[in-house]
Specification:
By secondary structure, the protein is of the alpha+beta class. It has two helices and six strands; from the N terminus they run αββββαββ.
Amino acid sequence: MWEVQDRQRLHYPGKKKAYTLKNQIAVASNSHIEDVSESVPGGAHHELTLLRQTDLVSKLSAGEAAVMAKGYDGNCADYPDQKLYLPFKARCNCPLI
């Protein structure tokens, strides 16, 4: 019985209160789906960890940019030469204006 609960825990993020799978989808500006990642357990992977595992940003051509959600904060350090646009995220000492 504990084995089943341990396997289920990987799919259960406490924030969502539901069993989930995560995927990453890259969509071009013309609304065509360019890439879809493998499904991973939702409770075991953070968005940034999944992005680092799939290395999706390195598939961008020269001159292409990526618009990402706040969950990918910290990704700019991994790819300093890529154009990556993320929304501003408030910090403890730097609140939103």
